Description:
Chain A is an alpha/beta fold and 273 residues long. Chain A has a domain at 24-118 and 191-268: P-loop containing nucleotide triphosphate hydrolases (Rossmann fold). Helices cover 41% and strands 25% of the residues of chain A. Chain A has eleven helices and ten strands. A six-stranded mixed β-sheet of chain A has the order 6-7-8-3-9-10, sandwiched between helices. In chain A, strands 2-1-4-5 form a four-stranded antiparallel β-sheet, covered by helices on one side. In chain A, strand 1 (26-37) and strand 2 (40-51) form a beta hairpin. The longest helix of chain A has 21 residues, at 2-22. With 310 residues, chain B is mainly alpha-helical. Chain B has a two-stranded antiparallel ribbon. In chain B, helix 4 (67-98) runs parallel beside helix 7 (161-185). Chain B is globular, with a radius of gyration of 24 Å. Chain B starts with a helix and ends in a 5-residue tail after the last helix. Classes of the chains: A alpha/beta (273), B mainly alpha (310).
Amino acid sequence: MQKEISTISVQPTVAAVPVELASKREKISAHQVCAFFGQNQALKNISLSIPEHSVVAIIGPSGCGKSTFLRSVNRMHEMIPESRITGTLTLDGEDIYQMDAVQVRRRIGMVFQKPNPFPTMSIADNVSAGLRMNGMRDRRRIEEIVERSLRQAALWNEVKDSLFKGGMSLSGGQQQRLCIARALAVSPDVLLMDEPASALDPISTAKIEELMYELKKDYTIVIVTHNMQQAARVSDRTAFFYMGELIEYDGTKKIFTMPSKKQTEEYITGRFG
Amino acid sequence: MTSTTQTNYGDTIFRNLTRAFAFLILLLIVFMVYEMYRTSASSIEKFGWSFLTRSVWDPVQEEYGALPFIYGTLVSSAVALVIAVPLSVGVAIFLSELAPAWLERPVSFFVELLAGIPSIVYGVWGFFVMVPWMRTTVEPLLSDHLGFIPLFRGAPYGVGMLSAGVILSIMILPIIASISRDVLKAVPRVQKEAALALGGTRWEATRIGLSYARSGIMGATILGLGRVLGETMAVTMVIGNRPAISASLFDPAYTMASVLANEFTEATTDMYLSALVEIALVLFVITIIVNSFARLLVWSVTRKNQAGRV
């Protein structure tokens, strides 16, 4: 199993890193970002730059702030009472916190840890949910986008004959790809993935990872993961968070072969975390 | 060895005891129906099915028909639900999604407090405060602006179907609102976040929550419905107690429960008593039918929700 996964993605992704990245445009930039929940500081002065059309992995032990960082990018952390944030986050140079939160989330999609399709909706309606929320009424156009998104999420062939069945009728891995299709349907620029494969079996995980490799041609992907092998397989760059601080951020190959910080090395070699 | 047999023995007793309790409920219902049927036998024999379709209620001539009462019960319940459900769901959305914590707690407390007020208190308040207000303000206003609808035409009596519906809606609001609030609060956060992450507004995320919670909200409505069908005192005081079927909601009406409460002491003849008990039987059957129908509705919605979840 392990072997099959690695043949899918390791070589092309990791090998391509250093050359490719230098020329890429900056998509998301964080500058001195601090996040608080009440009295607790969850992020301390995070500054990093995420290049367009690449996969950036965020790793670190539980409670290190990696999910908080992800959720501060699409302003999802605002849903938690008493949370606040300082510093600057930009999308294409535009300040995310000056924009309308709804607009931010239309441009920055998100896939959650557990597959969360809308249980009352069919597969097709799940995919088009975002479109309909954004006011699209043209049924033919919606059908086209549903098909395109399901194809992009590599789910079309499995569900094309059961588009009107409930979204919950799918397996866990299919549900997660359905959620990816749902996020892609509104044509975001960026896709945030919060441990998207942690609740899935190895085959489904491999499919999601393969998918990420395809998707980065059109999208910028930020993935939070507990699984270091996964980070090594899918990402171009890796950021290591620890206790709310960004310890190291570099090309994935470099992080995993010769990290410059001792804490990074200890974490990736499994000495803590 | 001994200990296992002892446990099994205890289990047997426990199982049989609880089974006996369960059967006792069934037995009680069967006995009640039988008793009502027996007491109403002479009325059933005399009027047959026409008891359900006749509008005459004349103890002097010994002519009885239950249609106005059936109509009154069903229509006042419908009016109550039409008013209470949107209001309750609105309250529930506010409490579960929008209200800040310092406001949510006291408001929830008062909503639940409403459920604990005895119905006679609602009746007295309804009679002395609400009915005059309906007569002088609400009903004239409705007939001025919505008078083209037959429902809102006619003289504003104050007491009548509309007042009964309003007081019933106030009485069931706490039940529907507090259960709906709990159901909405139980919607997984990831569901709302999924809607928000797609660029949904707060209202769109709430709608996702509502569709997730809809079978629970329908269940809450059924509990409310169960209460309005049988509610007696408050309705009796504001509905006007006139066994007539009228298109206007302003006109006095009568419900099955109210006629039982008002007239059982006056039922001097056997036929009178028999007819009253038959009304009780009809109320019983209608309650069962309406509740089964409502449950069927919930069941079909839940089943559709979970289509293929197997």
